[in-house]
Amino acid sequence: MMITELTTVKARLGIDDVDVQYDALLTKAIKAFGKRFEKICRRKFERTVDFQQEFWIREVEIILLQYPLESVTKFETKEREFDPWSERADIDYLVDQRCVISLKKRLGDCGAGRVTYTGGYVMPGTVVDAGQTALPDDLEQAAVEQVAAWFLNREKIGRIRIWPKGGVYEEFQQTELLPGVREVLRAYERLDL
Predict the structure, then answer these.
(1) Which H or E run contains 129?
(2) How far apart are CA 156 and CA 181, in angstroms?
(3) N or C: which end of the chain has fewer CB within 10 A?
């Protein structure tokens, strides 16, 4: 997943488009921070068609992993692990804030449910069609700033100690997010009920 485009990050860093020396490194960083953002927010950002999400059949509130929701394709249930999924028709539900599906009643007392839907953000550099939602500008800009900060400080960031004599020993800690980036991500964290 590319939460921002390479050209956007290079422009932020003042790297000319024809200079490809750091392209592979920056691309990996963009993908890594995109995944880290998803992990922190406990959700997936990239739009996916026919995403399948399982839930306990007794639940009536399904907090989506991929939102904003565009459409629901089907609901399925099964009672035991090795049973095939059985499609359920005439399921009454409401969608709250394009991120929660509220069922009118439980789909059963024992077993698993699965909903298939299309949702998430269209990533930068991709055409946004009717009914779709582009990745919010503040989320993309947070990624740009985080990648740029990492790149500019990559030689010293996270270094706890160095062993200067007799071999190469370095110990690193996990890179901290910029304070402004943490603030932006709070607004995109997946809901808990």
Answers:
(1) none
(2) 20
(3) C
- Segment 6-35, tens digit of pLDDT: 999 999 999 999 999 999 999 999 999 999
172: confidence class by pLDDT, cuts 50, 70, 90:
very low
- Kindly state the tokens that stand for 51: 């995403």
DSSP letter, residue 76: E
- Cα Rg for the chain, rounded, in angstroms? 21
What are the φ/ψ torsions at residue 36 (nearest 5 degrees)?
-65, -40
Q: How far apart are CA 188 and CA 99, in angstroms?
A: 11
Beta carbons of 121 and 68 less than 8 angstroms apart:
yes
The pTM of this model reads 0.85
Whether 123 contacts 3, CB under 8 Å = yes
Q: What DSSP character marks residue 177?
A: P
**Is-contact 43 188, C-beta < 8 A?**
yes
Q: Tally the residues of the chain.
A: 193
Distance, in Å, from the CA atom of 177 to the CA atom of 167, rounded to the nearest integer, reads 31
